[in-house]
Amino acid sequence: MQNFKVNIPFLLAGLLFLTSTVFAQKILVETEMGNIVLQLNPEKAPLTSSNFLRYVNANRYDAATFYRTVRMDNQANKKIKIEVIQGGLGDDSTKNFPRIKHESTNITGLKHLNGTLSMARNVPGSAGSEFFICINDQPELDFGGKRNPDGQGFAAFGEVISGMDVVKKIQTRETGDGEKNQSLKLPVRIIKMKILM
Question: What is the pLDDT of residue 2?
Answer without folding.
Answer: 53
